[in-house]
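Sanity check. The docking grid for magnesium ion depends on where the pocket ends up, so I'm generating a full predicted complex first rather than guessing from homology. Inputs follow.
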Amino acid sequence: MGWLKGLRKRKIPERADLGISRQEPKDNFRLVEKYYVSNPHAQILVYQDPDQASLRYFIDEAVLDEDELIVHDKLTKIVSKELEPPTDLDVDPAAYVREQVQLLSHKYRRSIGKISDENWSKVLYYIVRDIAGYGPLDPMLRDPNIEDISCNGLLTPVFVWHRKYESIPTNLSFTDDRIYNDFIIKLAHKGEKHISSAHPILDAALPEKHRLAATFQKEVSTHGSSFCIRKFREDPLSIIDLINLGTLSPKLAAYFWMLLEHRMNFLILGGTGAGKTSMLNALLSLVPPNDKVITVEEVAELNPPHQNWVPLVSRKGFIFGQTGGASIDLFDLVKLTLRYRPDYIVVGEVRGEEAFTLFQAIATGHGGICTMHSDSLDHAVKRFTSEPMNIAKIYIPMMNISMHISRVELPYEREGLRFGRRTRNVWEIEDFEKYVEISRWNPTTDTFNVDLTKSIKLKHISELKGVRLEAILEEIEKREKLLTELASINVRDQKEVVIKLQEYKKTGRSDLSEGAINNLKESTVTIKGRSYRIWRHPKGAIDPETGKKIGGRIARRGG
Ligand SMILES: Nc1ncnc2c1ncn2[C@@H]1O[C@H](COP(=O)(O)OP(=O)(O)OP(=O)(O)O)[C@@H](O)[C@H]1O
Ligand SMILES: [Mg+2]
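Predicted complex below; grid placement will be based on this.
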């Protein structure tokens, strides 16, 4: 009977990822790309599935062998009983858990038993992933290529939105109702919110500022619980990033800069995930740095570089058995901003009656920028002028500029991508239903047709300043060259960009390189019947970063 004793002692361990099924790639799948998201424990493999003519996203994590699983289970039990919450709330949770687990494993080394360094690092990976991270979804959250992660129910694959491949299914699916619901409850708790059958819908911000939307069981979603995590970029896209990504041209950016300096009001339109908030955030770096900026949002996403910045975030009240108790919505906050005497009021997204207050604010001389979920300016204006926004038609031209951003298919690959976000149109709003199109994106050449000579707002600025319109246009051209140069040498960090723009404002020139930006030589080249504008560095220019000669080289291609 000795063998039975051994078996009892060596109990079959629990699997690390219960309630999750992981599909393996089939033999005929072709590997497209692979990269680590946590070296050496988790890598991503993107496969082409010839049967479905589609791409698949596979997470390949180090597998725990039986001995490692035993250590993993013992440690998980110890940690769940003994781990104390950190006293310092600013501590990095992953680093804290790693340190504490190491201490606990030392304390309980006798009962845990011996384990090699390599095996130990695998076990530690799983414990940190499950306690401080997002469990089996952790590799997707670590993958910088992923914009959002969603799951529509049990036994269906979790989907990701990949920067290069758009929406693709992963090899993971939840298979157990209880574990899936527990996972969603845990997500809600991470966002400091609550989800249950009584409160089955949730909109929350996760600690890393990712946005979480979820539904619980079959209360409101017939396929059962669902969730969608929209990932937050720690390092937000700056105006220079947007130029380099081709979302707008340097000329458009220079035009926006001029308008924002004169407190013009902007409305950014687009569909879900079109890049409205990113554009809004990038535009804020063009607002004069001494302006007082107030941002009003439902979930904090914006991060203007201004010192004089008041961030306001709405809140949903939560009183058991009651709805709406102690709620503070965007409308309350926009009303409040007026008492703060801001230069610019920035509303993350207008949806309801807060739009009315925003228009009142801009009618009384404050600057206003907002985004709106809409696919055309006509629809947006219709919504503005009907319930619940109810804005009078005569107020509509107070919103001076509108732009429409969308995700588009590109005519040819750009840095390996077939998809991109483009500012499809920019209009100046002259009057109700009277718009002047300043820019239109050309989908066959991926270039922007910008005509600033049509601008009524620039004309207005020139009259206000008592200078000729040509002088304003010349100044915009100078700024276009500055932005072009910044993009070509990739000065992209939002703060750095602001410093460079300010240097330019003070001196009228920038000290970017020996070949000052205003010396970039512009010309047009024709390749395969298509015309491109290019800017070359002047003779003898030196790259300030590398010290190498760059005279004559192309600094930038543009539309
Ligand atoms: N110009 C761009 N080029 C490439 N990626 C971008 C661009 N703009 C935004 N993104 C990425 O697209 C995702 C969605 O962006 P963003 O939140 O700005 O869109 P949105 O239109 O505000 O979405 P929502 O409808 O949820 O408000 C983010 O992951 C962001 O990093
Ligand atoms: Mg947004």
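Relevant for the grid: Residues 276-277, 349, 371 surround magnesium ion (ligand 2) (CB under 6 Å).
Also worth noting: The CA atoms of residues 462 and 519 lie 25 Å apart.
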